[in-house]
Amino acid sequence: MSSRNLFGTDGVRGVAGEVLTAELALALGRAVTLAAAAAAPRVLVIRDTRESGEMLEAALAAGVTSVGGEVLLGGVLPTPAAPLLLARYGFDVAAVISASHNPYRDNGIKFFGADGLKLTDETEARIEAILAADAAGDRVAPAGGTGRIRPLHGTHEDYLRELHTRFQALDLTGVDVLLDCAHGATYRVAPEIFRRLGATTHVIADEPDGRNINDGCGSTHVEALGAAVVAGGHHLGFAFDGDGDRVLAVDRTGAVVDGDELIALAALHLRAQDRLRGGGVAVTVMTNYGFHTAMAAAGIAVETTGVGDRYVLEALRDRDWALGGEQSGHIIDMDFVPSGDGIASALLTLEALAGSDLADRRGMDKLPQKLVNVKVGDRDAAMTDAGLLAAVAAESAALEGRGRVLVRPSGTEQLVRVMVEAPTADETDAVCARLVALVPGALS
């Protein structure tokens, strides 16, 4: 099996027009169609609000149809709409054109298979092999003629219907909520579902112009939402990212509620209602130590994975569990959709609160956490340094049962990430400083 060089942890990404060009999108459309299990596959294409989205949509669709596939254009929709629409219409493949929380100049293409899951490593490697063959002049000829490109009408309503069906018992009458839509894919559907469920809904960052997506707003700039919630006297707020698969919350005091706390609230709520499938939850190594303490006290099993939603998803599937996610607000409820869904996660939070105040939440007690990214000349060499490894072991032993130390290399940059959690901020800072000082090959 060929290796994967083009696909990363979340599809193919790069600066639009430079790395992710129209030519590459066309080639990807052709390759994914040839790699599909079905003959003349039906491919759904949705996108976020970036100005490059229409160019890449057109090129991708041309590639699909050039080898006999049929393309249905679903327009601007959050990423989780893709697997939901796959199931509803029986598509063979779905493509989402988005770079999630990244700036507008970036874009990406990620694919979902007929089962609603992101493509396997093996399928992505097969696509890359087809791309390599095409580049070498060994193009596979299409079996039939060209396909068609058609708009798929009513996709917003289809997605809203799925949300409404899942949360039909949730009455938000009397809830004053402020939504930050990041000028992204949620800007129409998020306010609408909150209004339909009865909430008094206010919205910011809901005027996309193609370039303002994630610009000083959304889940990567949640401080703007915090200030707006306090200034407006709202009960709480939710900030989505550009493609709508993440969410962070803000309580009425302006305090940020991250993914760890949102998952804790959801897990305790679902467990209390005997709806936590398998009795466990999957999270990543970045999840706060306080989360593990809270879950242990509640008798909820926890599986810890590497960083990335694909690893959380793998753990959930392996154990037949439903709930998992990341500190960043990427939360997966497999009983709704096998993907992070920021809107659904926000509604699940309100379901868990059952009318209580988010500021009075009792999901978990967070330990002070400090993360320092240390630039190094060689991350692999740094991670094998005997002095650093011994110090990590000693500090970990000292924090046993009270906190933890995590030192790991970046997967994409020459960085060593040093993270410490301890009962007090002073101890956290001190331990972190001692370890950072021992990272060999650090660059200024």
From TrEMBL:
Cellular component annotations (GO), alphabetically ordered: cytosol
Domain Alpha-D-phosphohexomutase C-terminal: 371-436
GO BP terms: carbohydrate metabolic process; peptidoglycan biosynthetic process; UDP-N-acetylglucosamine biosynthetic process
Cofactor: Mg(2+)
Cofactor remark: Binds 1 Mg(2+) ion per subunit.
Sequence ranges assigned to domain Alpha-D-phosphohexomutase alpha/beta/alpha in this UniProt record: 5-134, 158-254, 258-356
Alphabetical list of InterPro entries matching this protein: A-D-PHexomutase_a/b/a-I, A-D-PHexomutase_a/b/a-I/II/III, A-D-PHexomutase_a/b/a-II, A-D-PHexomutase_a/b/a-III, A-D-PHexomutase_C, A-D-PHexomutase_C_sf, Alpha-D-phosphohexomutase_SF, GlmM_bact
Claim: tRNA-binding is one of the keywords in the record: no
NCBIfam families listed in its UniProt record: glmM (TIGR01455)
Name the UniProt record assigns to this protein: Phosphoglucosamine mutase
Record organism: Paraconexibacter sp. AEG42_29
